[in-house]
Amino acid sequence: MRNGGRRKIIDLWIEMAATDSGRVKLFTGHLVRGALLNLIQNADPDLAQKLHEPHQQRPYSVTPATPVAHQRTIRENLWWIQPGEQVRFHAGFLQDHIGEKTFQKILEGRPEIKLGETPFTPVRIELKRTTYEELVKTAQPEPVITIRFHSPTQLPIIGRDFPLLFPDPRYVYGSLARLWNQNAPPQVQVDTQQLHDWIEKNVYIRKYQLQTREIDVGKQVKLAGFTGTLEYLLNSMEEYAPWINILTRYAATANTGAKRTTGMGATQKIEHPKPQYQQQT
């Protein structure tokens, strides 16, 4: 049972080196998910089974693998990987017991990790733990929020059969708020309807550089989403303003929108330098 008062989110970064040559699809999010679930399966088969259950917001996310200190070699619409080449990916856990078990399993024996059929071995691991309460206490309202969507992102809308392919703040933060409430302790949950109403009156997109991108996630399935950078401007620093920063920071662990466990919706908050004030003499 989770500790209701001190639930944590966990960020896990894994760098790994290829031990053999291989080829993978250009978008690797679904392959990273398969590798992560294999690690969880080996650590806790019952937990892995629960994570496979359908019709649930899964309490983890992954990002696609990216090369470390080298460019990808692309031929025939595939990423060709040579022995010794290193790649890196991030896994975010919204319930700490899942992240801790995965982390311990990697530490125990540095197990082989496969992206598709290409084998790797971990060479560097980074772990960050943050409680939900700490995230709430340390996030201050900011007049401008800048976000970069690194992988294709699509937003689910309740009552619609198709996703939204534009970062309307009502649906970006509505989706994140529902995910937050599913995993956060009761004392730091947020009223999603009031948040939606506040955003509708106080948050708008000031500028953006976005594009849509289609990805191949295997089994002849292709998905589309938006990527790029945008700025949200807040008209008020009161009421729900801190929640925009809280949920933006949460998105860096959780990913944004639909298909988060396939590597879609990888999100980064771009920090703005704080203004420096010169003291008058």
Topology:
Blueprint: E1 8-18, E2 22-25, H1 29-43, H2 45-51, E3 60-62, E4 66-67, E5 73-75, E6 78-81, E7 86-93, H3 96-109, E8 113-115, E9 118-131, H4 132-138, E10 144-153, H5 169-183, H6 192-202, E11 203-216, E12 222-234, H7 241-254, E13 267-270
Helix pairs in contact: 1-2, 1-3, 5-6, 5-7
Description:
The chain has 281 residues and is of the alpha+beta class. The protein has two domains: 8-131, Alpha-Beta Plaits (2-Layer Sandwich), CATH 3.30.70.1890; 139-270, Alpha-Beta Plaits, CATH 3.30.70.1900. The protein contains seven helices and 13 strands. The chain has helices spanning 29-43, 45-51, 96-109, 132-138, 169-183, 192-202, 241-254, and strands at residues 8-18, 22-25, 60-62, 66-67, 73-75, 78-81, 86-93, 113-115, 118-131, 144-153, 203-216, 222-234, 267-270. The strands form three sheets. Strands 1, 3, 4, 7, 8 and 9 form a six-stranded antiparallel sheet that branches. The chain has a four-stranded antiparallel sheet with strand order 11-12-10-13. Strand 8 and strand 9 (118-131) form a beta hairpin. Helix 5 crosses helix 7 (241-254). The longest helix has 15 residues, at 29-43. The model is unreliable at 276-281 (pLDDT under 50).
Give the rounded overall mean pLDDT: 91
In terms of quaternary structure, the protein is: single chain
Low-confidence stretches: 276-281
Strand content: 25-35%
Q: Could you list some keywords that capture this structure?
A:
single chain; Alpha-Beta Plaits; 281 residues; 7 helices; 2 domains; 4-stranded antiparallel sheet; 33% strand; alpha+beta
